Structure formats: structure tokens, C-alpha cells
Amino acid sequence: MAERRVELNPGEVWWAAPDASVGREQAGRRPVVIVAGPEYLELVGTLALSVPVTSTNRNWPNHVPLAGPHGLPRAGFAMTEQPRAISRSRLERRAGTVDEACLIEIRCWIHDFLGS
């Protein structure tokens, strides 16, 4: 896949095609929420920090329900235990965005998991 610069904003929801997965990592074409801040997105032009979205409600407290005009056909839950950097060339199309409160909650879980 060729590297390309895709303009992104924090909180956007994109359909992505992640690479091969291992174990419990999410695989297949799926939505992701962009969690990187504007500075990262400006500085690192070919990558994006994201978390995958699942439509399965496992009732886990760290699976944040998407709120806002996310553009997905059904309810989604941000899997905050699986943040990853992905190539922007894997981003296929923008679906929508989550609202600010949702993005803050996603980032809080990631912050807690990092132990900082």
C-alpha cells in the first residue's frame, strides 16, 4: 500500500482495513476512531493513532459507546484497550465523528491504561 497523506481530525470515525491480526486483535474492515491530537496528526503525516470500534456490546466499562454523528449503520463501542498506530493509507473513507464528551472518555481510558 502506498503512503498517502489523509487529512484527519481528532474524534473522526473512519472505515479502515487493518493489516493481518494476531490473537484477540481486531481484524477485517472496520471502523476506527482517531484519538491522536492535532499536533500528532500534523507532525506525523502518514500515521494515525486510533482505536477499533465493535458493534458487540460486551458491557465492559472501557468499551465506550459512540456518541455524536458517527455515521455508522448501528451502535458502536470504542475498544479503548486496543489503541494502535495505523498507516493513513489503510483509511478508506470517513464515516463521521464522535462528540467531544465521547472522545474525552475514550482518551481517559487510554490514559488510565498507560498508567500515567
From TrEMBL:
One of its GO terms (molecular function) is RNA endonuclease activity. InterPro entries: PemK-like, Plasmid_toxin/cell-grow_inhib. Signal peptide: none annotated. One of its GO terms (biological process) is rRNA catabolic process. Keywords: Toxin-antitoxin system. Pfam families: PemK_toxin. Belongs to the PemK/MazF family. This is Growth inhibitor PemK. It comes from Brachybacterium muris UCD-AY4.
